[in-house]
Amino acid sequence: MKPIIFCDFDGTITNTDNIISIMKTFAPPEWEKLKDDVLQQKISISSGVGKMFSLLDSGLKADIIQFVKETAHIRPGFREFVKYTEQAGIPLYIVSGGMDFFIAPLLKDILPTDAVFCNNAHFDKKKIYIEWPHACDDQCDNECGCCKPTIMRQMAGADDYIYVIGDSVTDFEAAKQADLVIARDILLEKCVNEGLPHHGFETFYDVLDILKQREEVKA
Asked: So where does this one cross the membrane (predicted)?
């Protein structure tokens, strides 16, 4: 089986969840309940995240971008991990519930833009509003926003061995479709509780070791 990798961005590639960091810094207190409702799966991701960004003035765009550039750090080993997948010919896709305006600058010169699936933020109205270009297909009714399982169905073939790398409840539906999950934080807990095949990680050097070991064994 041919390997293919689907990797989350916020809290996975970066050391922090950028949406949470943005909200803590720029949003009024109402964002907290929206965040809790999303994490507890009381409301959909698209509804919760859309409402959170609608709390922010569009005029904050430059300040938010500068803030993310200064505070978001790529997890150690990610560049080496990307280089390995390129050399090994393993397709790598970033599937993120994050926003284009802060993901693009952080992944510049690391990955081509056509390997990144995320949401689009717009700043041409008083409040920021979100466009969801990767909505759920007819096999998903979770209102994911950026629907990771849908993207996986579009990009992976029947003979592919699917790796999912992630950290949060927002990666769980994708994890259910994986042959192997490489997880940390909340996603790791859910994989343990649900009995999904998984390995834990902290840095992408860990991910690289897991990938090399499995691919060398399969070869």
From this structure: none
